[in-house]
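Dear support,

Our group has been running a series of protein-ligand predictions, and this particular one with iron/sulfur cluster is the one our PI (initials K.S.) wants archived with full inputs and outputs. We had some confusion internally about which version of the output was final, so please treat the block below as the authoritative record. The input we submitted was:
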Amino acid sequence: MDDLMKDRMDQLLDHIMKKCLWQFHSRSWDRKVQNEGVLSKATQLLCGEPVDTSTPLAKCHWVDALCLVNDYKRRFAWVSQLKPDEIKEIMQALHERLDHLTITGSLNLELNDQHY
Amino acid sequence: MPYHEFKCSTCIPERKNHAVIKGPGEDLTMALPAGYLSTIPGTISERGCAYCGAKHVIGSPMKDVIHLSHGPVGCTYDTWQTKRYISDNDNFQLKYTFASDMKEKHVVFGAEKLLKSNIIEAFKAFPNIKRMTIYQTCASALIGDDLNAIAQEVMDEMPEVDIFVCNSPGFAGPSQSGGHHKINIAWINQKVGTIEPKITGDYVINYVGEYNIQGDQEVMCDFFKRMGIQVLSTFTGNGSYDDLRAMHKAQLNVLECARSAEYICNELRVRYGIPRLDIDGFGFEPLANSLRKVGLFFGIEDRAEAIIAEETARWKPELDWYKERLKGKKVCLWPGGSKLWHWAHVIHDEMGLDVVSVYTKFGHQGDMEKGISRCEEGALAIDDPNELEGLEAMEMLKPDIILTGKRPGEVAKKIRVPYLNAHAYHNGPWKGWEGWVRFARDIYNAIYSPIHKLTLLDIAADEIATDTTFETQVMLSDAALSEETRNAADLRQFTGQFDGLKSLRGKTYPEFEAKTAGAA
Ligand code: SF4
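Confirmed final output from the archive:
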């Protein structure tokens, strides 16, 4: 990933960390489901691909993804210029970085508590 | 992000793990304050106990209920009327408090008989109230009184009543947060699913983690009702006991304070498949996004958009009037738990305030993750601070205002730092568009009150000018503004009603055509 893409990925990440709550569920397995659910749907929306909303959980993820994508398009003009393979690349890197910040690299000792 | 050691706490080395400064380019994986741990002996915490967290924060806002503490009267007194969770039934739950009033002899001989007679006496004194919550305290827990058995005995003898028991004595957690947890789990285990509700619409939600502080819940429910959404229950502000027994029948849990109520949402998701949507009810943009999301979930986003457009147009000129005057003011955002992340970014974005510190009394590390992500670089994040650390932080950061509870708030006043009550509010409600302007007005009034300048004068020592007259807030706040901003025709001060709730109670709502045959 070149510096420009990295810089853009940081902007997308910063937006999530500042404005969203869905990535901060209290347990690691929930965070995994949330990050995967919202970001995969956001990628599909950005690429104009169909999105599954058939279950209540999928619908919740779609709702968060749609608001995220709309914010991205409003805030970052370059988002609408990206080609589908660039979108997939940047969103994949974003997903990995978000998983690192909120799950694998997180210092939150409660994440692996087995009970709610 | 370096951990921060307070000079006053060098004798308590463990405290160093509880404070962090958010440095440039640093992220959450580099440092995170410890949290939700027992307070270190020797540091004087400002926390509440687990009984207090269960009763005071979560149980007592339920409105049609006798809330009875089984223990010494002191525990009860401290959980009575110190928070402004009002209700639309004449504030029954605030006006009356009930305790079994345990004494030494009960500790020796047991207090179950006493409890039973108290329960019956309370129901007789309030014959219209048929629901009760009972709270364990340290004393009754230590002697092993069986609250569940007594409650069951009474329910067998009085079939018209229903009783919920919360076993969360003061020592059952490091802070009030332990009590939030226990009552969440106890409620879903004991009560959810024991009643079948009347579903009156196509779109049904539980509104969770909302305590109706000065009417917040009523403001938010107004938006939901304007969208044609049935709020099946509110957990728990202005909430009804029987509505909360029917939480299992909602299609969506809209979660506001994840700190105090995510447990029940998680369990509702696992046991009943109801998804959880986390929202922010504070601030124009976060609130707009929250209503938009709920609207999208049900396919009625146009109804949300209509409300967003109307409310934003009505209130934006007023919010911006305050923003012009609050820009660059430094704030210590020191609430109990969730408001540190509900407010950290949006008071900066929408009011122009700079958050120089966030702290939480009882938050967990997850709250710090959210709060630190949302505040600006350079902010000092502190978990469970003691009074001396609070003072040292204020001396170091020189805030223009702190948003906190009344214990640290009174300390701040002594060093001439204005404070607003982040728990009970000053002139709330602070949710909703109007509420957010009310909050901005309260901040403005606190920062620019002429009293602060006067209190800095020592009439015994200082030269007192006799050639100047009084000063007003506007004189103080507008002195540094440009002529253009000062006279901007499109900005104005708050013009809302003194009591906006009056018009909400008894309001009629638009009828939307039912989507399904079953819905009325
Ligand atoms: S810590 Fe125990 S004794 Fe003190 S108020 Fe809480 S329940 Fe009562």
